[in-house]
Design a protein that fits this description.
The complex is a heterodimer of chains A (359) and B (105).
Chain A lengths: L13 H8 L14 H8 L4 H24 L5 H13 L1 H11 L6 H14 L4 H13 L18 H6 L6 H13 L5 H6 L5 H25 L3 H5 L3 H4 L2 H11 L9 H4 L7 H7 L5 H6 L8 H8 L10 H17 L23 E3 L2
Helix pairs in contact in A: 3-4, 5-6, 9-11, 14-19
Chain B lengths: L3 E7 L7 E7 L2 E7 L5 E5 L13 E3 L2 E3 L6 E3 L5 E3 L8 E2 L1 E4 L2 E6 L1
Antiparallel strand pairs in B: 1-11, 2-3, 3-4, 4-9, 5-6, 6-7, 7-8, 10-11
Classes of the chains: A mainly alpha (359), B mainly beta (105).
Amino acid sequence: MTRPMYRNYALDGPENQRALERKLANAQWYTCPISRKRLKELMQRRDGPAIRDTLIWFGLLALTGTLGYLAWGTWWAVPCFAAYGVLYGSTSDSRWHECGHGTAFKTPWMNEVVYQIASFMVVRAPIPWRWSHARHHTDTIIVGRDPEIAVPRPPNVLMMILNFVHLKSTPTDLGRMLRHCFGRMTAAERDYIPAGEEKTIFWTSRIHIAIYLAVIGWSVAIRSILPLMYVGLPALYGSWLMVVFGLTQHAGLAEDVLDHRLNCRTVHICLANRFLYWNMNYHVEHHMFPSVPYHALPALHEELKADMPPAYPSLWAAYREIIPTVLRQMKDPAYFVRRPIPSHPRPGLEAASAVLSSA
Amino acid sequence: MASEWIRVCAADEIEPDDLRRFDHGDRTFVVYRTAEDEYFATDGLCTHEKVHLADGFVIGNVIECPKHNGCFDFRTGAATRRPAREPLRTWPVKVEEGQVFVQIG
């Protein structure tokens, strides 16, 4: 019997150098054929969809928050805060993500404002996470390089379950922010954050921590948990839907490959969930062409699907694969799901960019 | 190396608000055409992670990297959005008799 494979996922561990030696770091990734003309159409930026969605989002937060306040002390407060929590602790993740890419709005400052607000809501230090996510796109699920591998092998199922209320992620992020408050960064952070960003990182974390301390102080002063039900705690009790969506992105799929069709999932979900998740269910398409804004991802999916593995028809279908895979990986960390990719892309389409060469 | 003007392509081969990749020797460049029919040229690789900008998106006078959405003003080369931080090198461009030339040093 062969010994189970245990790998070191740390960015300051030996796998980082190994990925460099295997030319897996900052490598060229496969892209499905699509004409530049069509891709340009899909990359067009608009303010309208994101303004509409942001107004609805903040409107729903205000509505559920107000109802929760009015119902406080009765059982009716439970569904109100359940809804408020999901809008705060889960929906903020997709807004953080899209605005971090700078593609949600056409107007740059709108992306930045929503990015900063959503980063606070989801308890993420905005600058380190911007760099972390850039690395995630450079080296998606490359062991030792990608700081955002959610399910390292063998999976720790207890931590995965606890993380449905973010009892793994939030303490980790708060710990990082506290370190920033004292002017310190981890070795892993220094691997993907360039020098020169420290001052802004430290002061942003100090502001975030100061707000949390103020809300805690308010709760203590009035001897009620109510203020924390609006700010802080929703990042725990409302984060479960973010995890439900997020695990479908990469869990159980291949590591150390240079083809997003093999390490990302595209999952069909209903319109309401697509609003909450801002179309990140089209995850293969997003990783392959990150410049395409969320509102154009369904159209991009139609363009690329002939050269893609079949999309999962539902969240249920995705979890029917993920759950047994994760359980098997506990005993067999080398196991992963092999996605079927078409052997021949559609003919007749030009490459995304033409190259001119001098004589 | 002495500067030389290198022919890239016919001016109308680049659509307004778009770009073309241009390789010369072992170097790669991008030539841009604005909506006002002005032409500019920069190095072809993003200063962040060396991704080909030719696959990127032109938004006004900005080129957005296709991989990480870092942005540069292609008229000056200035990095305008993280993760791009280092400026992009720019190169002189001229259009003569319907042909685009880049002066590469």
